[in-house]
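[job 4471] stage=fold_predict status=RUNNING
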Amino acid sequence: MDWLQVTFLALIQGLTEFLPISSSAHLILPSIVFGWQDQGLAFDVAVHVGTLMAVMLYFQQDLRQMILAWCRSVFLRQHSQASYMAWAVIVATIPAGLAGILLGDLIELHLRSALVIAITTLVFGVLLWWSDKAGRQSRGEGEMGMRDAVWIGLAQALALIPGTSRSGITITAGLLLGLTRQAAARFSFLLSIPLILAAGLLKTVELYQVGSEAQISHTLVGGVIAFVSALACIHLFLRLLDRVGMLPFVLYRMVLGIALIVFVV
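[job 4471] inference complete, writing structure tokens
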């Protein structure tokens, strides 16, 4: 990779991991337009670590409270809102984990086409717009029930289909369940942590098994760019969310989906 490719791909990873605009749709276009080859496992690991560190840093206080509260709920039977949120994240992670184990190979073989990515980018973009308009947006994080966590977790499993967007579909589900934009987005970001961690660990194991000849400077810089861009993305998204709503991201998805159909499919 040259430095342009390193910077561009790291920015894509950092931004699209958390914005509801589909990372897979953004990763297919540069390879087609610029003829770029796969960036390699070492770079994938670096940018995953970068985005993971960003979301953990941003929510460090919440995570600390949730972990301590979860331990108290398990060992001391002391329950609180923080322990309930920790259990909600665990419960909501299970469907995507099971779907990945059971259907991962099937999806990898049959659903990674440009046409599928274009269609899901458009369809789930419209669903995101509808949820923002139709959702009551009357409940905060503290009012979430375990049933809400299950439904959001089932929605997250759909994100295995390329073009869906993990953050997009979980925010959509949260809005349809009556959560406010802030509550839906914050839970979506917290929910990303175990999945990014799992994906990073799997890629690390694969990297250890097959090895890599990637340049250390590329991987380090890519990880730092992904970290900084992801941290800025989370902060700005949550700060501007109530002001701008989901429409800008929906319109962007429409343009992106149409571009994929016109130039790639």
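[job 4471] summary: Residues 3-263 form one domain.
[job 4471] exit 0
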